[in-house]
Write a structure and sequence with these properties.
The structure holds three protein chains of three kinds. In chain A, about 75% of the residues lie in helices and about 0% in strands. By secondary structure, chain A is mainly α. A two-stranded antiparallel ribbon of chain A has the order 1-2. The longest helix of chain A has 27 residues, at about 200-225. Chain B has 18 helices and 20 strands. The longest helix of chain B has 17 residues, at about 425-440. Chain C contains eleven helices and two strands, in the order H-H-H-H-E-E-H-H-H-H-H-H-H. Chain C is mainly alpha-helical. The chains are: A mainly alpha, B alpha/beta, C mainly alpha. The interface of A and C includes residues 113 and 286 of A.
Chain lengths: ~300, ~500, ~300
Amino acid sequence: MRFSSNTRILLIAMTVVVLASFLPLGVSGYILGLLTVAFYFGVFAMAWDLLFGFAGEVNFGPTFLIGTGAYTAGILDNLYQPPIWLCVAAGTFAAVAGGVVLALPALRVRGPYFGLTTLVAVLMLQNYVVVDASLTGGEIGLTVPDVITISDTKNYEIALWFMAISAAILFSLSRSPVGLILQASGQDAVQAGALGFNVTKHKLTAFIISAFFSGFAGALLVFYLGSASVGTFVDITVGVQIIIAAVLGGRRTILGAVLGAVFIIAMSEALRPIGDLANFVVFAMALVVVLIFPGGFFGLLTRSREGG
Amino acid sequence: MAETAPLEVSGLTKRFGGLVAVKDMALSVHGGQILGLIGPNGSGKSTVMKLIMGIERPDAGSVRIGGVEVAGWPSHRIARLGAGMVFQHSRPLHRQTVLENIKLALLPDKLTRLFADPAIDQHARTIAERVGLSGVLDRRPATLPFADLRKIEIAKAIARNPKVVLIDEPFAGLTSRETAAFSDLICELRDAGHAILLVDHNVKSVARLVDRVIAMYVGERIAEGTADEVMRDETVRRVYLGGSIETAARPESSFRDAATPFLEVEDVSVFYGKAQALESVSIHLHAGEFVSVVGLNGAGKTTLFNTISGLLPYSGEIRREGVPLRGNTAAAIARNGIVQSPEGRELFVDMTVRENLDLGGQHLPSAESAAQIGGLFELFPILRERQSQAAGTLSGGEQQMLTIARALMMKPKLLMLDEPTLGLAPVVLEQISRALERLRETKQITLLLAEQNVTFALPHADRVYVLEHARIVWEGEPARFAAEMGTGYL
Amino acid sequence: MGTCCVSVVFWQILVDGFAISSLYALGAMGFALIFGVSGVLNLSHGALMVAAVVAAWAAGNDLHAGPYTGAMIGVAVGFATTLLTYFIIVSPLQRTRKIREDEKEIFILTATLLWGIMIQELIGYLYTNNAKTVAPIVEGVMSIVGVRTPKNELFTAVVCWLVIGGLWLLVNRTRAGKAVLAASMNPRGVTLLGIELSQIYIAVWAIYGLLVGVAGVLLGMFLGVSSYSVGPLTASAFSIVVLGGLGSVSGALIAAYVVGYLETITAYLISPAYRTIPALLLLIVVMYIRPRGLLGRR
């Protein structure tokens, strides 16, 4: 029955997470730092997969939501130095608001136009950040006075458990009745309507959930890095990496996105010795995977065939 | 108090831009009754269904479900009120099992439910049993035959026990055995008390099921009654069959290539996904012969032509002068002399008449191409007048003539004409008819005509095939057709 | 600032705007052509243009080629890379059976995006991310209506229009060109007339490659590019094509001028830092009110 395969996946995932939480005992701070970033990245990718894989909306600008969350949290901290949790909450809220604002025009249009709307949103955010430099730090970036903690291990654990809980929530959502309705809405909105589902309501919800996790993770990441810049949070290249992570990991699997994220970050680091060519190689590998294994890593692991 | 019918429609009107798709439509269906809505392509029958279901908004008129006015409501509200629709094209969720697909239809439209109600599972199983899917509940749609996919669609539509069930082209793509089983299923639904509206091209295929039939043409109702009454109705017959028929056939023995006919289609079957579009179809044509393939919309005529033209994958053999056509690209088949004048015309609408014709003559040296055009202007004088006009601005009849002319530019050995008369006025039909007559007399050209309009198809034909529901059901001379097939055709 | 005479600024905007709009037009028309005929939104567009520029620059820098030869090399590289894009990325994806038909569009988008970034990174690695300009073929300054203008700008505009003119002639006066135009209106119609679509696709990508090569090299001579220009170039082509109507080549031409002038006016009258913003705003407005664009069909 359906449930047992889901619980099996969850159990395996949970085991991996618990094992991973013991990593700091034997692994250098450098690798922990890398994984920390990878985990946040994983949440970005999972949030993207929810929107694309389920609601069927290709979002070329996930960094719009992430950047909004990150910058709001960072700017707030810079200006008023409230407690960190307040900044993060504000960032998350801002991202959700941004998600709603983006969803309204985006849901009225279809196909390439939708992708374009999201792209335009990112460009506008980028322009704004650069132009309003006094507030945002412009092209150089913003540094925040506070960080969550300096300890590598603590940061790692926070990121790990944040990612794990987000994954659990998003994965359960994807396999729940709501996830089923989202899938139907994404695949054939007319039929979903004829079955009695208010498609707009569900897609908007997917947007909000995606925005929530993107903003939350983005804000947390700011307080890990201690800084925010266009190049790390807003740039289209970052958005592309997120999309690649999700597609590499396997569309519509949610959990695969984490695998993809870890892969991308790990590969970029591993290839650092060859200098700037590293990015090129990572993208080349991703391209090969897209061309030859459309099912992604998760698809390979579970050896599930792409449906009909 | 008089009981209100579960479905009542009156004055229903819908316009798409300047086109009136549905005009002043009225119908009512009671519980335990099946109403058939029949019409050719473009008659508006599918639009009526979409209007009832809320997929399109009516411009005027009323739709009442269980006495509640729902015209203008979004489809999900109408569905929740008590209507279910079985779409023509099955789109199940491929990653979910059959059971999960059915459960989907039972879910409430809520955002907060994270766990499914266990009662839903039981309910879904009951529904599956009702339609005959109990054996495949744990399988994924990709592994199932087409008939089972259709059953999933029915299960989804009736899941919440709606008062009104709308079914679009119930038998499209099914084999004859599956069609019978499906008919029985629909009858059971009727007996259980649902009000059922069926939409189809073909009165005959739904005749056994329906209690009453309404025939539509160009958006309006033209007849209502029992299936028999509608099949015999004068207006309906005129619309479908045209008027009286005269024939001028040449006997088959007069063609010289008896041993190896010019074109042989042998045991060809074509599937669209899982739906069967052609089933073991075999026809043959002799060089210089004029053969008509007669059949209603949805029978498979266009599929047959597209298969011969190389646009669709098929099983079976198609041979031209003894040599199999398989392996050639569609463009190559056209270049070598098997040319289609397609149903959709496929004109280059922003280019002029002359440019369209020039494109047809691409493969000829320019002098020869110009000469060809001259000849075609003789055949269709109106095109000469309109040669600098954009093709999209021509009338329907002129466009049809351009389509035929353009096909003739390719100097075809076999010209396949797909429904050239669709939607055209009788005057234009006359012109095209005369042009075909001249072609038949003056050129050594083989003609294959696919038509619904029997009056047009028969007078020129040497032989006739009847295509019905993806199968060839009759072959013979035109004179015999009128005698044997006349009443049974609809 | 120089002279504050209004008419001088007006003429400067007119000339500058014309030159940059012509450049945008060339690139955008190619982008629209590809979408109109083969239905592909090529997100590696910017990368192809930058590749052409950098090749021209490298020819001048490393091979010490003259400006004319360097330009030719740049165009050739742009052309070759574009065809490569078709043969190793787009065409295999269009033909594969491993992906469902309705998902192919996303995969092609992602793959071209990836490909573009790969090229960007490779260029950055081989030649650094610094801005590069290509030695102009025509140097010096001339006076138009009392305004000093680099001759290069005029050269750019002239070459662009020669190419656009050539494209128009090709499409409207030659048999092959008309076949391409017909394919953009109705691919099935073209097949039924015995013309192989696969050949049309190759022809279209070849034309696109030429447009991209020339536009890239001219851009290099006019403004200069760096590997960071890849994203903004693709985005601007995409925006122009949407404004003009997806799939309409003439729409892209008109929209390019609208965008080019909007940018120039903004740069002159408000500030160069804000130059891209009005076009973006216009795009949002258009998408809200008339998503089809000016002359769109799809």
